[in-house]
Amino acid sequence: PALRWHAQDGLTFDDVPLAAIAAEHGTPSWIYSAATLRNRLTLLQTTFATIGLTPAIRFAVKANDHLAILNLLRQGGNGVGAGADVTSAGEFARAAAAGIAPAAMVYSGVGKREDEIAAALAAGIGQFNVESAEELAMISAIATAANRIAPVALRVNPDIAAGGHDKISTGRATDKFGIPLHQAAALYRHAARLPGIRAIGFSTHIGSQIFSPTPFEAAYHRILDLIDSLMAEGATITAFDLGGGFGIPYDDGIAFPLGAYAAMVKRLIGDRALDLTIEPGRWLVAPAGILLARVTLTKATEAADFTILDAGMNDLIRPALYDANHGIVPVGAIDAASPPRPTEIVGPVCESSDRFGRYDLPALKPGALVAILDAGAYGAVMSSTYNARPRAAQILIDRGQPHLIRMRQPIDQLWHDEIIPHA
Ligand code: LLP
Description:
Blueprint: E1 3-6, E2 10-13, E3 16-17, H1 18-25, E4 29-33, H2 34-49, E5 56-60, H3 67-75, E6 83-86, H4 89-97, E7 105-107, H5 114-123, E8 127-130, H6 133-145, E9 150-157, E10 179-180, H7 181-193, E11 197-203, H8 213-232, E12 239-241, H9 258-269, E13 275-278, H10 282-285, E14 289-300, E15 305-309, H11 318-322, E16 328-330, E17 341-346, E18 355-361, E19 369-372, E20 393-398, E21 401-406
Parallel strand pairs: 4-20, 5-6, 5-13, 6-7, 7-8, 8-9, 9-10, 9-11, 11-12, 12-13, 15-17
Antiparallel strand pairs: 1-2, 2-3, 4-14, 14-15, 14-19, 16-19, 17-18, 20-21
Helix pairs in contact: 5-6, 7-8, 8-9
The chain binds ligand LLP.
């Protein structure tokens, strides 16, 4: 594991003392382990490879869009790197800037704009995952005008409930995502005849932070039935994008059964000749990152003991938004005489939702450092400057060396692009 306790240095991350990083770069800071990232990509690839599957990996850039992270994933765990699942012009540009070929990208999202579609098409995007009949018509018109052919997979909404939280479930009929299952066959036949479109297959994504292969199996089963019946009519279908959504243990210790998932996919696909794609985000990067914070103050009231950090919901919004419970561990030596006791860990932002949760921890004095775990996905990307709090620094530990990969935002950069009229 990347995090280890060291008698003299306290908590280390890839053998680098976190106290040393805090001393050099300050807090709050995001810290990533390149080794963990490479290992997870390799593990993902070998889990499929050992049973004879080689799905294309299209990392969901929304989970962590830092160029250094994208670059590491592109380089790969064992030679073949990951491509990208992008969802905006900005994500497309970031992935391209990190050296990911447009052909190794899929473009997802319910609201692709005309200019975004045109640019991705001109660059040679590998696949559009199309979410509606309206979008299909839009892409056909843009491609025809540009004299190009857009490779298109239809994203099916299989009407399956899955996902760790209501706000991150995407595969129910009531969600805005995808094409309803019962409309998908007709729309595929239509797509196959449309100018500017090359219909290549189907995609799905049923939600995020899912632990059981069962909802995936139910969704894939429905889509494979659809594929079979279309192919029986003579349709050409080569692509099946299985989506992402694989869960990671936060503080509950449940891990995603990757081997069982891969075996299920293999069993379902059988001898069909389909090019498979997966779009994992969280599973690859969450465990590779932590948020390092310092205790600013402790405060005791009749209701609770509060431990106030210098990191808040503007940095990591997941607890406020999804009631997520990230593990929190002390970085420095703990007072053996002080038994763990419940404390409310909160941030400095002026909202009651700026709260990481209730934790049993030894007394943490002002100045003590803590590591907030599994913060590599949907962490820095979702941060804001609310309460005019600058964006935290980002550090990547690679081959034993910490590298500053994003400087702490200087205070005056908070308004450098603002304009006072008539000033
Ligand atoms: N593919 C598509 C089309 C997606 O919309 C997503 C995530 C993924 C792949 C990757 O899902 P993952 O493997 O990371 O579960 N901000 C939330 C998560 C939102 C996920 C949105 N879509 C959180 O912090 O939990």
